[in-house]
Automatic annotation (TrEMBL):
GO terms for biological process: double-strand break repair involved in meiotic recombination; nucleotide-excision repair. Keywords: ATP-binding, Hydrolase, Nucleotide-binding. GO terms for molecular function: ATP binding; DNA binding; DNA helicase activity; hydrolase activity, acting on acid anhydrides, in phosphorus-containing anhydrides. Residues 1-231 form the Helicase ATP-binding domain. This is FANCJ protein. PROSITE patterns: HELICASE_ATP_BIND_2 (PS51193). The keyword Plastid does not apply. The lineage of its organism: Eukaryota, Metazoa, Chordata, Craniata, Vertebrata. It comes from Oriolus oriolus. Residues 1-25 are annotated as: Disordered. GO terms for cellular component: nucleus. InterPro entries: DinG/Rad3-like, Helic_SF1/SF2_ATP-bd_DinG/Rad3, Helicase-like_DEXD_c2, P-loop_NTPase, RAD3-like_helicase_DEAD. Residues 12-25 have a biased composition (Basic and acidic residues).
Amino acid sequence: GPCTECSCSSGKEPDKDPTHTKKKENGDRLCVPKIFFGTRTHKQITQISRELKRTAYSYVPMTILSSRDYTCIHPVVSNSSNRNEMCVELLEGKQGRTCSYYHGVHKLSEHHALQSASRMYQAWDIEDLVSLGRKLRACPYFAARELMMGADIVFCPYNYLLDPQIRESMDIKLKDQVVILDEAHNIEDCARESVSYGVTESQLRAAREELDFMVNNNIRQKDHEPLRAVCCSLI
């Protein structure tokens, strides 16, 4: 049966070791690592999954992590400028509405075309997932995340691996896993971007005014005075 604690690839001597875990001497289970394959752009992921399809490893369980910009199929959310916030609001059901596509996620993540057991499984790209999602009225964004559990190889843009906030929100755990970075000479720029933040002078002035107000009204002065000083020096 599939091992719940780690990723399991089918086809390699299933009878001998059905869970694909090795026993360590102290009784801990040693899991087969996942391969995280980071690329610079989403377009490159499409090219790589196309290449994977042509190899003997086309049946290996995989997934592609990408943003809602590429995978949201909700008619209203997908056309909005802030898909992330709108999606979260829908899922929280604040307006009394919810997302029917999200509730159909399992229809997509368990679909035979994405499962290797049926041997119909083939490497896929984002477009394949989205068109199947439309057919099944199921959310590709969350299905791709769910498929990460059983995937042996996970494709994603660099910043999903480099940016700690994205790693956390996507629940990506890299300890003891294999990480491959394609075109790694671009990593420096990507790392710089993930810890950089753009701010305008008017935003700084507005922040300074708010901090002035806090300090003058004795609201956590110790915390706010140094922040005000930073704003002033930047202006």
